Amino acid sequence: MPTRLKRPAFWRHVVLGLGLIAFQGYLGYSVVTGQFGIESQDVLEAEIDELGAKSGALQAEIDSFRHRIELFQTTRMDPDLVSERARALLSMAQADDIVVMVNPANGKPLSSSDTASTTDQLSGIIEDGID
């Protein structure tokens, strides 16, 4: 009984080749435009820079608060500075304090030999609504 070898169909090789080329095209497209592709790297790097800047700003704020907390330790507090700061915040003065009135617009002290004119200047500034 004679045996005859059957040749594989030509179309099977063509379909397999086209399928592999299509898969390589998909992979190439993903490399360029995918979530972690070449185009996305610029976006990710910009986001990393932005988050780094925010992190630096937050770290500076944290350091500022830590410094302020350290100033409240009883071993470091100066009673004169504490009373001076409390009086400044409460807008109170003692009888022996020297009060210098400052123009809030330019930061220069209001000075005059006549205390009434200085009071008039300050009243005018307050009435104008300049903070």
Automatic annotation (TrEMBL):
The organism's place on the tree of life at top rank: Bacteria
InterPro entries: FtsL/DivIC
Compositionally biased spans, kind Polar residues: 109-122
Region (Disordered): 109-131
Protein name from the UniProt record: Septum formation initiator
